[in-house]
Write a structure and sequence with these properties.
By secondary structure, this protein is mainly alpha-helical. It is built from 3 helices and no strands. Helix 1 packs antiparallel against helix 2 and helix 2 packs antiparallel against helix 3.
């Protein structure tokens, strides 16, 4: 699970369409997921991983693309 979290996190960080807010959300949720794993709460870690993937799926509005 830990390797999956890191691989998915790095893949999301390389996504070009993310705005600053989405990247911050991904960092925050990755930290929550890692903390849950450290505490032995695998279900919570998986839930945060799903939330992280949802944050990475959000398209940047045209007005923010510059």
């Amino acid at each position: 699970m830990e390797l999956s979290l890191e691989v998915r996190f790095l893949a999301l960080c390389r996504t070009a369409h993310l705005d600053c807010r989405a990247r911050q959300d991904i960092f925050h949720l990755a930290g929550r997921s890692a903390t849950a794993l450290d505490l032995g709460h695998v279900e919570a870690a998986e839930r945060e991983l799903r939330r992280m993937e949802q944050a990475g799926a959000v398209e940047t509005p045209e007005s923010c693309r510059g």
